[in-house]
Structures are given as C-alpha cells and as structure tokens.
Specification:
nine-stranded antiparallel beta sheet, two-stranded antiparallel sheet, CD59, mainly beta
Length: 199
C-alpha cells in the first residue's frame, strides 16, 4: 500500500544535506489525503536539476481515495531552501473524472471505479508500478507536467513509495484511461523523484 509517511520521516530532520553534482536545493510543500486524512508537510531536499525551472513546479496525482499535490521551489545557493512555498488545493473538483482501482489484489485492476480529479489534475493516467514485492496497474488523475516527468525514462522518479516500471500513458478526457490495459514491464525501470516520495 501507499506509504504517506516514509519520506516525511526521512526528510523533516534539521540536519544539513549536501546536494551532489547536477542537483539543486528544493523546498516543497506537500498536501496529501490518504484514507480521508489530510496531511501537510514541508520538505527540504535535493533533486535533479531536470525537475527545476525558473518558476515553481506544481505536481499532483490521485489514485483511489488517495491524493497528493506538491509545490516545489528550486534554488542553487547554500541554505537557500529555508523559505516556504504555498500549499496546493486538493479539495476543489475540476470536472475531469478518471478510472482508478478500488484495491490492488492482483497485477491488473479488476475493480475499476471512477474518481473525480481535483486542483491542477488535468489528465488521466494508466501505468504500472511496483510497491515492495507487488506489481500492479496504477489508474487515476495526474497533472500534465507530472505525467511528462514520469514519461522521461532517463529520469528516475518515485513517489508514494511506488516506482513506475515504465512510462505511463496519460490522456485528456474523462475516463479515457479505462479502455485498455498496460502489460507489466519485464525489466522494471525504477524512477526516483526524492521530493515526491512523501505521500
């Protein structure tokens, strides 16, 4: 299952973190809702420069009853990530509905439900993830920019403590992710966006 607290336990300490080559300092405000419990966290970390632009990045994803949204601000000087960024809206429905899995008992989603997308989630997503020892289909809502990031195979991305095993497919219309199925990858590509491991 999704581990909302894993990265919070890992990254909320006060210790200094040195970014390595091609990484930038970040500050992220992460808003999560898991099993109808809302959480907000401030995460200070390092990420690959690929995720950083001149403006703040905002990412959001939903699956089943779980929602995560993150506002990420990047900088490249010592201790520059001491500020704050705004928390994102995960309550306001935006009119898009997507297929999602009610539970994960097998690799393919067998109990498909409809979920209402919120905030900046403007795409439906269909992908495959590995969560510990279990591989399964991931269906839900996502922001277009996060779908783009997840489609970059050279970028290692992970969030919710889940690893996408291949580039997901994203589409723009309601329930457009419910028609087909995606086969599980034989050789998983572990993607790892440290700042979004939170939820």
């Amino acid at each position: 299952m999704l581990d909302l607290n894993r990265a919070v336990r890992m990254s909320t300490g006060e210790s200094q973190l040195d970014c390595v080559y091609e990484q930038l300092n970040t500050i992220s405000n992460v808003t999560c809702e898991y099993e109808r419990k809302a959480q907000q966290h401030i995460i200070r970390n390092c990420v690959q420069s690929t995720f950083c632009t001149e403006a703040d990045q905002m990412f959001s994803i939903s699956e089943g009853g779980n929602v995560m949204a993150s506002s990420i601000s990047c900088c490249n000087t010592d201790h520059c990530n001491n500020g704050t960024t705004p928390y994102m809206d995960i309550q306001t429905e935006n009119g898009l509905t997507c297929a999602s899995c009610a539970s994960h008992q097998s690799p393919m989603c067998e109990n498909i439900i409809s979920i209402k997308c919120v905030g900046i989630q403007d795409r439906c997503i269909d992908g495959n993830v590995t969560d510990g020892d279990m591989d399964y289909q991931f269906l839900g809502c996502v922001s277009a920019n996060l779908c783009d990031v997840l489609s970059e195979r050279e970028i290692q991305t992970s969030f919710y403590n889940l690893h996408f095993t291949s580039a997901p497919k994203c589409c723009k219309t309601s329930r457009c992710n419910s028609a087909g199925t995606v086969r599980l990858s034989v050789a998983p590509l572990l993607l790892g966006l440290v700042v979004l491991v939170v939820c």
